[in-house]
Design goal:
globular, 5-stranded mixed sheet, Transcription Regulator spoIIAA, 131 residues, alpha/beta
Amino acid sequence: MKTSIHVEGELLKAELAGTFALADAMDSFRQVVESIAVHHPRIVLMDARDVAGHIKPLERFCYGEFVAKETSSLPGRGVFPIPRFAYVLAPDVIDPQRMGETAAVNRGMLVKAFTDLQEALNWLGSSTLSR
């Protein structure tokens, strides 16, 4: 998977592309966490509309658990408050049951998954970036 990270004011946007692999997705999120530690954004948009592949339920759960754990480490790195995250995925990739989202939310992360970019930006409270 390819990861491209851009910061515009209070918004960090990570664009993800390629075929989903759990290890790659975790590596991409580690890059996002590093950028958050440097830039201290208030909101994070994970634009994964160009990610393809079949994601197994266990992978969704493990990813949600992982991102919540990584996010919870941010205050120890001087980031407070922890940013709010929105994921935008293609309709054929997003999980209708939102297993990854639920796993992350249940572990304290403020995150929501969408198929529509504008809905995600509205939820984040930003309209500064669109494709």
